[in-house]
Specification:
Layout lengths: L5 H34 L26 H10 L3 E2 L4 H11 L17 E2 L2 H9 L1 H7 L7 E3 L4 E3 L19 H9 L6 E6 L4 E6 H10 L8 H10 L5 E3 L5 E3 H9 L11 H13 L8 H22 L22 H17 L8 H15 L9 H4 L1 H15 L3 H7 L2
Antiparallel strand pairs: 1-2, 3-4, 5-6, 7-8
């Protein structure tokens, strides 16, 4: 039998004491976690019925060429030889759910499958329609204990046939952009029941709040929650961690210019959105607002300086590490200029590039499009996402709905 010495007894006593202390710490931490988790339980009362709207500034109408803009919108008819979820989403945020496309106004050049606005909406928000159109495809919307999750690339859930959405909360951000009520009914797939179940846009908001982390891709989530959360500057995720719009904005401001999706332009769009939304309710502190204003002034001055009478391409910020497209290529010019023009259309006049620079960028991108690039049958389909950003930007600058432009700008 092993003899227990004083030393052994001392070590054992310390171990037991440390264990008790550790247990007390864990219990305290668990209590804090449970309390924060309780606070994180949002209700429909915490979510706006109608999302906050951001109206275009409206003083840049004369920068938009009427004939060229109408021609681009006609090429953005939602008709593709292959259906991709990203194209459907971009078409929806451009045309909205009430859009119709009569053939006498919208020629279907290659007789591809064409979607109405209502069909675009059903594809994105009704799993019953989605499954009937694409049998065997992984669900786009999934019921969760927190709400409704969206299949996207950051979630690691790839689709079989139609690909997936590319960013956290890009679907919810589009809901806010087009003004969808949080009470709008949607249908998501419930894995536990193996069937479609009704839900609402509010469930997308609840899921976004529950899984939020500052380490995720922020621009779409920031804009979504700013539009839908009712008078909240702070919220708690499912881990009981507190989050605020100040923290989100400062994290985005810490990124280098050009860093992030689409050459960093989505971050700029999100910053402008939060700045404009803060005019309607208190989202960010005065200090953070001043930081945003200063940042946008610097970016605008930089865009003025590098314009040289043309559009902006992916090298606008000379950011290393984004190899999706050659940063100085014509394709990157289309993507970058269209995205820049979107945030410029809603930015306060003193926080955007000079008007002559904006006019030069628009003229330059149309020279490129009219040079024969769009003549290839697959050009508009292959570049649908980038073209849709340009088309939507032009509509915002003109302060007109795309359907109105097609019908009245002949």
């Amino acid at each position: 039998m092993t003899r227990i010495t004083r030393r052994h007894a001392l070590i054992l006593g310390c171990s037991l004491g440390s264990g008790a202390l550790l247990y007390d710490c864990l219990r305290t931490k668990r209590n804090v976690f449970e309390e924060n988790a309780r606070l994180s339980k949002l209700s429909n009362a915490d979510i706006r019925d109608a999302p906050l709207d951001i109206a275009p500034v409206g003083d840049l109408v004369n920068t938009v060429p009427r004939h060229e803009t109408r021609s681009i919108l006609l090429r953005l008819l939602p008709a593709w030889v292959s259906i991709k979820t990203g194209r459907v989403l971009h078409a929806y945020r451009l045309w909205k759910a009430d859009a119709t496309f009569p053939p006498d106004l919208f020629p279907n050049l290659y007789n591809y499958k064409s979607f109405s606005g209502r069909e675009l909406s059903k594809f994105l928000f009704d799993h019953r329609y989605f499954a009937s159109l694409l049998p065997g495809e992984s669900p786009l919307l999934l019921k969760t204990p927190s709400g409704v999750n969206v299949r996207n690339v950051p979630g690691g859930l790839e689709g079989h046939f139609v690909s997936t959405l590319g960013h956290s909360d890009d679907l919810l951000a589009s809901c806010g952009e087009v003004g969808m009520s949080s009470r709008t009914e949607i249908w998501a797939f419930d894995l536990s029941l193996n069937r479609s179940e009704p839900a609402t846009i509010a469930d997308l908001v609840l899921e976004s709040v529950a899984r939020f982390t500052l380490r995720q891709e922020l621009p779409w989530t920031a804009e979504s929650l700013a539009r839908y959360l009712s008078s909240r500057r702070q919220w708690f995720n499912r881990f009981g961690e507190s989050c605020s719009f100040d923290e989100v904005v400062l994290r985005m401001l810490a990124l280098s210019p050009g860093e992030g999706a689409c050459f960093g332009t989505h971050t700029l769009n999100s910053l402008v959105c939060l700045l404009r939304l803060s005019e309607q309710c208190l989202l960010i502190s005065g200090y953070v607002k001043d930081r945003v204003v200063s940042h946008l002034r610097q970016i605008s001055a930089h865009l003025d300086a590098i314009s040289k009478g043309g559009a902006w391409d992916g090298s606008w910020a000379k950011k290393e590490g984004n190899n999706d497209i050659e940063r100085s290529s014509a394709a990157s010019m289309l993507a970058c200029t269209g995205h820049h023009l979107e945030w410029i259309a809603i930015a306060p006049p003193d926080l955007r590039p000079k008007q002559r620079v904006i006019e030069s960028a628009i003229s330059s991108v149309f020279r490129f499009l009219n040079s024969g690039w769009l003549a290839h049958p697959s050009a508009a389909t292959d570049a649908y996402l980038d073209l849709s950003h340009l088309g939507r930007a032009l509509c915002l600058l003109a302060n007109r709905d795309p359907s109105f432009i097609v019908r009245h700008w002949a």
